[in-house]
Amino acid sequence: MASSGLGSQFGAKKESAWGTAVTVDTFFEYSSESLSRENEYYEPETLRAGRTFQPSGTTRQTGRNVAGDTSLPFPTKKGGFFLDQMVAGTITPVQVASTIAYNSTFNIGASVPTKSATLQINKPTTQGVDTPFTYPGARLQSAAFSMEVGGGLQSTFNWVAKDETNPTTTPAGAALASATYVSGTSTWAHSDVTLTLNATPAAAITSLNWTWEQPRAIRRFLGSGGTIADPVPNGLATVAGTFSGEWYDETYYDLFCSGAFAALVVTFTHPVAIVGTEYPTFTNTFSAIQLRGSSPQVSGPEMLAVDIPWVARDDGTNPPWQAIYKSSDSAAW
Questions:
Q1: pLDDT under 70 in the chain at which residues?
Q2: Structure-derived torsion over alpha carbons of residues 290, 293, 298, 301, reported in degrees to the nearest 10
Q3: Cα separation, 114 vs 321, whole angstroms
Q4: Do 210 and 239 form a contact (C-beta atoms < 8 A)?
Q5: Which of 1, 12, 5 is closest to 174 using CA atoms?
Q6: What is the mean pLDDT of the chain?
């Protein structure tokens, strides 16, 4: 038992059917979460002689919204769980040269994401009581990645879920799952990243980030018991990001002025091999990005800094974002 966040745990598992909770069995070392429930109420404004205040008897809870983020350093093992939530179909890792290294390829934007997960967070009380909060029917709404000099690859995943339960709620939630963590997992540091634009190494970049977003329809129907219906996609997905650095030369400015599309490849390669010459790798190819933003500006005697926002588009041939995750993970996601 624990009485603070030190005793927390975060587990997840892909569901077979949306909203049907499963027992979580993959656990991640995570930084923070904001998953929570908000209630909705029906409060009719009625008149009665002598009454000057809203009566409690006519106030009724009608529904609940459940959503929030989970944030963690993106891991070198099991991270494919999150990428899998952005695509349709079964993604099966492909063995690399008869080794224990496997490539999992996620063509994000080439299919409408159809998967959901059950999430569970232990939120210990100050009395030392473990309190497992379970979130069935969790659909991924956005995924954000960021890296800066001196740091590591950070990731934040935003979810909308059908419900929030724990063992004392109605309906009752699952008991706390026994957490087991995969051995040998690590993280990517800033020294592990390479960035190319149209196959040319990007120069003088100090930070980068990108975010995938999938709009979803949040609806309720009569007879649902207050929970939402399946939050299905109802808009075009987007990927947008920014890389920042020094005003080094006019490469980015020329591309910005032309409005031409370019291929951006961001690769993270861990220095400790899986086996032989095969290293944990996270390769992200955006086949058609367009630079946005504005011209560099002088604000003093310091070196000029630039923020270069970009958007990804579908070039009609390649997936807007292809993520290839190389690890020792061999089971289908």
A1: 1-4
A2: -70
A3: 17
A4: yes
A5: 12
A6: 95
User: Whose CA is closest to 230, among 49, 4, 9, 19?
Assistant: 19
The pLDDT, as a whole number, for residue 163 is 96
Task: For residue range 26-56, list pLDDT tens digits in order.
Answer: 999 999 999 999 999 999 998 999 999 989 9
Token readout for 274 is 């899986």
Q: Is the peptide bond before 171 cis (omega within 30 degrees of 0)?
A: yes
